[in-house]
Amino acid sequence: MEKYREIIDLPHHVSKTRPQMPMSDRAAQFAPFAALTGYDAAIKETVRLTDERIELDEEALTALDMKYQLLMDALDDKPEVTITYFQPDERKAGGKYVSAVGTVKKVDDFERRITMQDGSKIPMDDVLIIDGEIFSSLE
Question: What is the DSSP letter of 14?
Fold first, then answer.
């Protein structure tokens, strides 16, 4: 302490040419930072679960084809159905099963696509279950 005796009581130096840094900016100098940018997002993406696509057997595929035919025959009646289909994940293998409820506008057997009244298009090859009042005669 004796070593610094001559400077210890001197006043704090304040620059005449540069403004003092605000306290908020001074604190930011010591804030933590992410050394690996995007690492947290990559970990969260890896941990996110997806479902696997269920492969239907011949019997289930035949039942779906019969329902598609019924839908095409009854399009003028604007049938309301619930369609559960597989939606592939854009980032990783797998996906999720989603249900769409609404009125069917068009069934395109050539492009294998169902168009709903709201404009959404559902690939027929991704459909797992299709249900509605119109199919009560099949049960």
Answer: -
How confident is the model at residue 138, as a pLDDT?
Answer: 65
Q: Record the tokens describing residue 8, joined without a space.
A: 């210890």
CB atoms within 10 A of CB 114: 24
User: Measured between alpha carbons, how far is 107 from 124 in angstroms, rounded to an integer?
Assistant: 9
**Comparing C-alpha atoms, which of 95, 49, 101, 63 is closest to residue 80?**
101
Q: Report how far apart, in Å, the C-alpha atoms of 77 and of each of 81, 124, 133 are.
A: 12, 21, 12
The three-point CA angle 95-97-103 to 5° equals 130
DSSP at 130: E
pLDDT value of position 52: 86
pTM over 0.85, yes/no:
no
Mean pLDDT in order along the chain per 10 residues (139 residues): 84 89 80 77 80 89 90 87 91 88 90 92 93 78
Residue 85's nearest CA partner among 69, 110, 70, 68 is 68
In 3D space, the residue among 112, 103, 49, 95 whose CA is nearest the CA of residue 76 turns out to be: 103
